[in-house]
Design goal:
The structure is a single chain. The chain is mostly helical. Helices cover 68% and strands 0% of the residues. The protein folds into two domains: 84 residues; 76 residues, Arc Repressor Mutant, subunit A, CATH 1.10.10.10. The chain has eight helices and no strands. The termini are far apart.
Length: 187
């Protein structure tokens, strides 16, 4: 396999076997699709050799299927097989990130990430928010935040579903006003 050029897809279609041979009009379509798919594989895998190997594996697999049964649209069939194989290989790869020298790495670990600071601020705010609610509202809110169904929330608290929803809405609005000020209820 040469660098920069895809394998010819027509090499793996046996001309002697009529069932495995694509109709004449589809040969050109398959060749064009093959070039695009090879480029896709090179781009996604970032390696010409890996792309060639992947394309050859797909070609052999499709040839076996073509020997057993007729493939109506070989270009679409090959495209599906290539995309599936490439995605599987990309998902298996671990992303390696350059961290610099050991001094850079140590400095980077000592600086908290923006997301972790924001997450900490959100946790503190939610703790204050929940602490300023009455007990029943806090239980409803915690269950709702954990993804419990309204039916389960209402049965645990001992009220109707609509009452639990109204209680939570009122508790959130009043707590927002208390913590953020009177203008906080407006979106």
């Amino acid at each position: 396999m040469g660098e920069g050029s895809p394998t010819n897809p027509l090499l793996w279609i046996p001309e002697a076997n009529e069932r495995a041979t694509a109709p004449k009009g589809q040969h050109e379509s398959l060749a064009r699709a093959w070039k695009r798919l090879w480029s896709y594989a090179v781009h996604e895998l970032r390696d010409t050799a890996a792309a060639d190997e992947t394309m050859d594996q797909v070609a052999k697999s499709v040839a076996k299927v073509g020997e057993r049964s007729s493939i109506r649209r070989p270009d679409a069939y090959v495209a599906t097989a290539v995309v599936r194989k490439v995605r599987k290989l990309v998902a298996k790869e671990k992303v390696v990130e350059y961290a610099g020298s050991s001094h850079d790495l140590a400095a980077r670990r000592s600086i908290p990430e923006k997301d972790s600071v924001k997450e900490l601020e959100n946790r503190i705010f939610m703790g204050e928010f929940l602490a300023s609610m009455d007990e029943e509202s806090r239980v409803i809110c915690e269950m709702w935040l954990s993804g419990d169904e309204w039916k389960d929330i209402a049965s645990d608290v001992g009220c109707s579903v609509q009452h639990a929803k109204d209680k939570l809405r009122h508790a959130i609005e009043s707590t927002k006003k208390r913590l953020l000020g009177p203008g906080s209820s407006k979106p």
